[in-house]
Amino acid sequence: MVNGHRLSFTILGTGAVGGFYGSRLLVGGAIVRFIARSDVAWIRTHGLRIESPLGDRHHRPVDVYAATDPIPTSDVVCIALKTTENDRLPELLRPLIHEGTVILNLQNGLTLEEELAATFPQAVVIAGLCFLCAHKIGPGHIRHLDYGRITLAPADARAQACIPALQAAFAAGGIETDVQESLLAARWRKLAWNIPFNGLSVLLDCHTAGIMFDPEARALADRLMQEVAAAASACGVPFEPGFIPRLLEATARMVPYDPSMRLDFLAGRPLEIEYLYRRPLREAARRGVRMPAVETLADLLSIRDRARRTSISAAVA
Amino acid sequence: MVNGHRLSFTILGTGAVGGFYGSRLLVGGAIVRFIARSDVAWIRTHGLRIESPLGDRHHRPVDVYAATDPIPTSDVVCIALKTTENDRLPELLRPLIHEGTVILNLQNGLTLEEELAATFPQAVVIAGLCFLCAHKIGPGHIRHLDYGRITLAPADARAQACIPALQAAFAAGGIETDVQESLLAARWRKLAWNIPFNGLSVLLDCHTAGIMFDPEARALADRLMQEVAAAASACGVPFEPGFIPRLLEATARMVPYDPSMRLDFLAGRPLEIEYLYRRPLREAARRGVRMPAVETLADLLSIRDRARRTSISAAVA
User: Fold this and answer.
1) E strands along chain B, which residues?
2) Where would you tag: which of A33, A116, A182, B198 has the fewest CB atoms within 10 A of its CB?
3) Can you give the pLDDT at residue B317?
């Protein structure tokens, strides 16, 4: 990838994340190709609509492909699928990845980039940690509510060199980015928010404000964060003093926000438990650190997720 | 209290526990007086109906009082209120307790008998740990589904002496009892079941079979039990080897069973979190033992219990 030329992107997924950022990159002048599944025919006919405080957009025509179509080579491949579909990833990515292709992974979770780098050693892997409140409200139709910043974290020095071009492409589309030198630190910092607020929003059936303005729920979120902090330390990326209180304060100041897991739950989609909870638990356990409250949360989420889809309660009633 | 004579009982509460055991004691020939709140007028007019595999019963007339009525002295006062009403207990009990009155406490939880003994040093305190599946289906109307055994645990030697007469009164009504020498051990053994199954039945919205036949839910119940076992040990009443596996096995063999907390939750009643969770957590913490998974469960229950009654989610939406 060469800094300075007009970048081309292939975006895997036309959900809230893929649709929104793809639209912003188009607005900024990048070449953007989408790979969709159920929406391909719809988007080909009707285009892609984004409602957003940044301005509503209706992109039409849109360069959209099914995974089985021949797809032109792009500089950057953005992964914007849910991690619950990650068993499909190697097959989906294989035809798209060439020597030096940038994989920009917009998913949530831990150990994602290690897996990508191991499977595609010819690729340049960069994590893109999205702070976004948006959801898909219909085929090819995304509603962006708030936020949008991306934290970019390169997996290695080669990836580091590609950061400025990516930042420029996003900036042209009105998307703020910042850079974290340590991918592992960036992932754990994100988990410090995602682990409490995603799980609690499902189990307590409320948004961030519902958690923050209930003293007991806030205290539980804090306790979960302390467990994540201990695990991050054990993994060699301790949080700086004051990080967790500041994160809680910032959350209290946010407009009420539905974490992605709550949106998934309400929409009947499977929950991203493996990469958001099980992998961090495993990485911590490998260093001798347990996160018992986090584990309890993960178990409850996992059981409810499965029960909802298999109706265990009904089956034995 | 003299062994051998016809015992008299005053039963505080005409819910599932008070109504069912009161009925069985009546069947066995004891004198039984009930103290009711909302049901007084109804029971005076219509009596008390129990549907049960032991035989349906319709007691009429029933000796029923409001708390403010003058009430004859009884040998035994049974506490069959929810612990969520325990702030009313001293006032309710004061006119009923004389020198040597037996307080038979049928509530669930920890530290209950210590409180009673401290408030009423003239009384004889015995814990009655009920293994009962029954619920109130209307005013003065109880449905007994299964079980009914009571474990009696005396608070001291004086209480020990009253056990045979109590056992005889219950046996005459078809209620099996057994005796545990150590009240503290009996309470912790009961908590080993109550802590996981009450909480999980609410948070996972299912009965015991729903928990036992889901491998992940069963593993979580097991993990919660292990925390309770560690706390019981720290409190000086360790479980014997094999106790927890046997408890799990017995639960798997039970007919699907709705723990009382689930019935409370479904009926919109406040949950018994203080005596079932907070007191055990506090007693363990005093001995330097944490139960982090139990604490997480307690927090989630407490937040949901409060949210349901104050609609925090709605208030901030």
Assistant:
1) 8-12, 31-35, 48-51, 57-59, 64-65, 76-79, 102-105, 124-138, 141-154, 177-179
2) A182
3) 36
